[in-house]
Amino acid sequence: MSPALSFSRPDIQPDGDRVVAVGWSSDGHLAMSLGWTLPLLDIRPPDAVLGFYCPTDYEDPSWASPNLPFGQDPAPSPGTGYNFLYDGLHDKPVSVYTPRASKLALGGWKSLEDPRSRIILHMDWEDKSLPVLINGLRRTGANSVTNPPFPSVEQIQAISPLAQIRAGNYRTPTFLVHGTRDDFVPWQASQRSYGALRKRGVPIALVILTDGLRVFDLYPAIKRNPAAVKEVNDGYEFLGAHVKPHV
Description:
Helices cover 29% and strands 13% of the residues. By secondary structure, the chain is an alpha/beta fold. Helix 6 links the parallel strand 5 and strand 6. One of its GO terms (molecular function) is serine-type peptidase activity.
């Protein structure tokens, strides 16, 4: 947190000695990855992590299989007039991106009409998630894109929280939330990570929401589900318990 920033609430002061990380989906994976990557840089990892429906086991067979969210046909309609992948690639990294609402996004964020979300759909439909995540996509010329190879086991384990837990490299107190109707990341992976952390004596909590959809907490309907609201709040209570000031 930059010391030059001013806050509208003077009663809230950031404390760099008490830090937690929260993330949804891939951001949850990034939050967990701080637990084993920061120590390599001699930086203290977060005091706790809260992850919502995040990937924790990249060795799960689902990552090497096609995934058709919402039962959509992977073939673009004739006459779309776009290059499926090329148009979504940029020369510089893009850190924040949201498809326009007019693009009729699937699940609120993926649309064939949107060049960036077509990359995600390509990863889902063509079982290219791990090749793209680990080895990347690049433009190679006019309207052509690289075809990244499938990564090695060592490459996959280097980014997989469960593999790092089993290796003893991840010891951060963690709270995981996952719905049983997640059509992208298997909830069973969160269950395996929970078991592995418990086995190593790391503080861990897991909430499995029966019939919980992906991004369930971002739908307005959550307001009509007190149980789901409580589970989300419990996650933040977990974080708070791990950064309480010492008396």
